Amino acid sequence: MGATAKTLLLMGVLTGLLAGLGYLFLGGLPGLILFLVIAGAFNIFAYWKSDSLALRMAGAREVSPEEAPRLHRIVEEVTSMTNLPKPRVYIVDNPQPNAFATGRNPKHAVVAATTGIMDLLDDRELKGVMAHELGHVGNRDILIGAVVAVFAGAIAMIANMLQFRMIFGGLGGGGDDRPNPIFTLIAIILMPIAAVLIQMAISRTREYEADKTGAKTTHDPEALANALEKLEQGARMRPMQVNPAMAHMYIVNPIASFKGGAAMGRLFSTHPPMDERVRRLRAMARVGY
């Protein structure tokens, strides 16, 4: 299954989970419809405000070509290889080598790099990283990530409301249409976990796709592979204090991440295993794409 089809399938399942909780909460079709409408309103907010919130949370500041000539030059070089407009360029004053992109669409996109990544990578490697980030922009991953985060957060919120309702007020007013309390309890426990797993799976899928897009843009998969290895090591040496809700935006996990093949760790990870990302890129370099 292709990355786009997989993402759409997972987002459909996430929508179904939200609708199911709405059905349980209000006991029927009106609840399902209401919570879909609420989710739509949240998504509109996320679409317009996710970029400014992310930049503020990261402590990023916009820099001019005079302030950061090297970064602007590399972003311009990568942009010239795509059909995308040049994004705004931001710097995060942090020693951890990392980068992320945000913005509601390609015309309002932002790329941000830490001071650590500027010190660590050479121009070829940094170009690979910027191509990866612009891959997220072109693939509309920023919007997808914002929508998925809102859905997962709404599911967790509704599950908590159902929990309090069960404890203090019961569910419904009785009759045949009253939700089964055992089924509702199972839903309260499992649906938020399922939503997080789906959110993480979508995030990993989009990272693989951005790696592929970035490598195709520069025609240099090896440079991105080398950069990712350096960034993974640098992130482990200098963990960054970030809101966990923002971790998926960075090219490598800025928080101490799972290493090795722990199945549970990988299920709940925002990023694919680094060895697999590097393996895929080097396979592209060997056999073409």
SS class = mainly alpha
Overall outline: elongated
Strand content: 5-15%
Instruction: Give the terminus-to-terminus CA distance.
Output: 17 Å
Low-confidence stretches: 172-176
Mean pLDDT: 83
Give the neighbour order of strands across the main sheet.
1-2-4-3
The succession of helices and strands, N to C, reads: HHEHEEEHHHHHHH
- How many DSSP E strands? 4
Tally of alpha and pi helices: 10
Largest sheet: 4 strands, mixed
Helix content: 55-70%
Gyration radius (Cα, Å) is 21 Å
Summarize the structure.
The protein has 289 residues and is mainly alpha-helical.
Folded structure, characterized:
The chain is mainly alpha-helical. The chain contains ten helices and four strands; from the N terminus they run H-H-E-H-E-E-E-H-H-H-H-H-H-H. About 2% of the residues have low confidence.
Question: Which terms summarize this structure?
Answer:
elongated, 289 residues, mainly alpha, four-stranded mixed sheet
How do the helices and strands line up, and which of them pair or pack?
Layout: H1 3-26, H2 29-58, E1 60-62, H3 69-80, E2 88-92, E3 99-102, E4 110-114, H4 115-120, H5 123-138, H6 141-168, H7 181-218, H8 221-237, H9 263-267, H10 274-287
Parallel strand pairs: 2-4
Antiparallel strand pairs: 1-2, 3-4
Helix pairs in contact: 1-2, 1-6, 1-7, 2-6, 3-5, 5-7, 5-8, 6-7, 7-8, 7-10, 8-10
